[in-house]
Amino acid sequence: MLKSFSTIGYFFADKIILYSSKLIPEWKLGKYSEKIIIAQRHFLDFTTFTITTPYKDRYPLIGYIGRLSGEKGVLHFTEALPAILNRHKDLRCLIGGDGQLKDSIESSLHDNDISIRVDLPGWISHDELPHYLNQLRLLIIPSYTEGLPNIMLEAMACGTPVLATPVGAIPDVLIDGDTGFIMENNSPECITKNVIRALNSPDLFVIAEKGRRYVEKNFSFENALVIWKNVLEKI
């Protein structure tokens, strides 16, 4: 039913505004391409999402923050953790969030005897996010599907590099080895390989800094105002 209403809306709309051209094929909107305008709508408060703990002063901690649900691929991340933690003996992990997979994740950690090295703080409020993001050395987003995840932009603003799957508009922001890291898919084996690759990168601090500068340049409130002023002039 919802899909039918969306199709009717696309047909009668004068303009369709998307925040990435990559969403056109993903959302099967190619036949409406002549009426599509690209305009990102995301912006951050850089007084809130900023570096409070310098990257080089952070403990070896990686993590995931978000819903504990199937489309987020978080269970695959959990399944990758034994191999990751075995390779990095001083590494800890944080999995923040709540959802239907919570019990499965806890069971997986217990069965693999790694629960002592994984923190599960539960749901993290938006006000608490900067504190947690400033603890991480790497944020992992192993999703099957995304638009443009706020948590990615917020992490980058806090100077935390991000490893993610190339879904939705993520590749518009994350350039592998430059502003972040991209993994081919979210299989446990692929996550393991790429987490280790990212943590072992000699340019990890530089990549974190490039990512921070990128979001500060492109996702400010002032930048969003300019973009939407231009959109309104086209309508």
Characterization of the model:
By secondary structure, the chain is of the alpha/beta class. Helices cover 41% and strands 13% of the residues. The protein has 10 helices and 8 strands. The chain has helices at residues 2-12, 23-26, 74-87, 102-111, 129-133, 150-157, 170-173, 188-199, 204-218, 221-234; strands spanning 16-18, 36-38, 61-65, 92-96, 118-122, 138-141, 162-164, 181-182. Strand 6, helix 6 and strand 7 (162-164) form a beta-alpha-beta unit.
Q: How much strand?
A: 5-15%
The tally of helices reads 10
Please give the alpha-carbon distance between the first and last residues: 29 Å
Estimated structural class: alpha/beta
Any low-confidence stretches, pLDDT <50, length ≥5?
A: none
Radius of gyration: 19 Å
The protein's oligomeric status is: single chain
Mean pLDDT: 92
Quantity of strands, as a count: 8
